[in-house]
Amino acid sequence: MKKVWNVLPAWLKVFIYFIVLSIATLIAGVVPMLNDLTFFFVISLAMSWLFLRAECLSLSTLRCWPNNRKNWRQFFAGIGIGALMLICTAIITFSLSGDAWHFNRHIDPLFIVMGFLFNLWSAYVQEFVFRGYPFQVLLRSYKPWIAQLIIAIPFGLMHVHKAMSPSDIIVTMLTTGIGSLLFGLAYLKTKSLMLPLGIHLGWNFLQYLVPRTAGGIDKGLIIVAESNIVYGFSVVVLPYFVIMIIAFALLFQCSKYWL
Predict the structure, then answer these.
(1) Is 88 in contact with 243 (CB distance < 8 Å)?
(2) Most buried of the four, 67, 120, 121, 182, by CB within 10 Å?
């Protein structure tokens, strides 16, 4: 198997990887108890171990856990960056929509703790699945921008569901695609999954606590008053693009010594 696997082009290895994950998704759809992040993580972990073993490498080469203080610093810095990005996006959205909001006076600590743990696990699984083996094997054979674009496609598709309209699918692919590029750039700058994991977690966790539109949960840090406004592209999506582009530009210019 080693000889056969090692002569395969990187794109084919990644194609096989995601085909197996697609089959796992179909199985999870038939067996509801398997439709869980842990199931997909186990599948991805098993494939990564098997494929790396065939290439005479180990899981440690994926740099998917913190090995030193620098990695921990990258992780916590990423959380701060992701959280700040979400807050800035929310401020712009509120300014455009005119929605009234107020701080929640009855915050449930358990809701926050459980939300943090869930978002930590979700972000870690996604970063491992997409910017673990597939992204890194592509980087060994192709230019970074090619690897980035290839991974952005399945990353976007993961966030699509059958109830979406065609326009919603396009917007979802674009927004998650840009997110994928940012997380990928964070890996390229640090050669570790800790910074992209932190940014991913910071964004998702604050998004969980700070709704940007009315009609969301009422257990987060703020509550948005009911509104009759129609949340269009310019109110919700455009602020996201603006903040993402700014973050991308700043991270791109950032020296590796600062990270």
Answers:
(1) yes
(2) 182
pLDDT tens track for 81-90: 999 999 999 9
Against a cut of 0.85, is the pTM above it? yes
DSSP string, 135-195: HHHHHTTS-HHHHHHHHHHHHHHHT--TTS-HHHHHHHHHHHHHHHHHHHHHHHHHSSSHH
Boundaries of every domain in the chain: 64-258
| Distance in angstroms (rounded) separating the CA atoms of residues 159 and 151 | 13
Q: Alpha-carbon distance 138 to 121, whole Å? A: 25
Q: What is the CA radius of gyration of the chain?
A: 19
> What are 196-217's pLDDT values in tens digits?
999 999 999 999 999 888 777 7
- Report the b/e string of 98-129 with b at 16+ CB within 10 A: ebebeeeeeeeeeebeebbeebbebbbbbbbb
Nearest to 126 by CA among 211, 33, 193: 193
Q: Which residue has the tokens 């980035």?
A: 148
Q: How many CB atoms lie within 10 A of CB 182?
A: 23
